[in-house]
Design goal:
heterodimer, A: mainly beta, six-stranded mixed sheet, about 0% helix, about 50% strand, globular, B: mainly beta, four-stranded antiparallel sheet
Chain lengths: ~110, ~110
């Protein structure tokens, strides 16, 4: 079945460091891919998305590219801030469900130190 | 707009008790979903609805009931609480954007069953 695998955390970085959180997926067809962020005590918020191969989603300095050949959607940011500390979820929407049903990875917790 | 609201924020139940988690959205979205979040497991879909009067089961529906009498409201009922239902519950509403769907999450309900 469809699934999402993302790197285990926690990831601890110093402010201004480069961030990569790996995400790979298994799905038939061409799913839509998402990154959601969850700040402490809050629900998930959509960070960025990509709906077809080679699309790059970007928002708030974060970006991720839909790689069909490697079934990956890695999240990157060039210079992290303390305010980026949160849990990040990679997710996919299978095409045969109309897209709104979403399968989530386990989440990766990011700590950024000042 | 208030977005997606959930009540209560916290709840403690004894085994065998029943209760209803409330969810409401004011964005006129067609789709609504309930997820549970457990450590290391990401979010798992419990039930979902594609419109008023239409509901269906997700990945982990046992022990839960839903109904959708209006576009705005999507309550989740625990029939006879069990310790295995200790979790954080998120309600989400969704709408179609381009080739995918964006989900908007509520702040969550933290439930403990003793």
């Amino acid at each position: 079945g469809d699934s999402v695998t993302q790197m285990e955390g926690p990831v601890t970085l110093s402010e201004e460091a480069f961030l990569t959180i790996n995400c790979t997926y298994t799905a038939t067809g061409y799913p839509s891919l998402f990154w959601y962020v969850q700040y402490p005590g809050e629900g998930l918020q959509l960070l960025l998305k990509a709906t077809k191969a080679d699309d790059k989603g970007s928002n708030k300095g974060f970006e991720a590219t839909y790689r069909k050949e490697t079934t990956s959607f890695h999240l990157e940011k060039g210079s992290v801030q303390v305010s980026d500390s949160a849990v990040y979820f990679c997710a996919l929407s299978p095409p045969n469900t109309g897209g709104f049903k979403t399968i989530f990875g386990a989440g990766t917790r990011l700590f950024v130190k000042a | 707009n208030a977005g997606v609201t959930q009540t209560p924020k916290f709840q403690v139940l004894k085994t065998g008790q029943s209760m209803t988690l409330q969810c409401a959205q004011d964005m006129n979205h067609e789709y609504m979903s309930w997820y549970r979040q457990d450590p290391g497991m990401g979010l798992r879909l419990i039930h979902y609805s594609v419109g008023a009067g239409i509901t269906d089961q997700g990945e982990v529906p046992n022990g839960y009931n839903v109904s959708r009498s209006t576009t705005e409201d999507f309550p989740l009922r625990l029939l006879s609480a069990a310790p295995s239902q200790t979790s954080v519950y998120f309600c989400a509403s969704s709408y179609r954007v381009d080739a995918g769907y964006e989900q908007y999450f509520g702040p969550g309900t933290r439930l403990t069953v003793t």
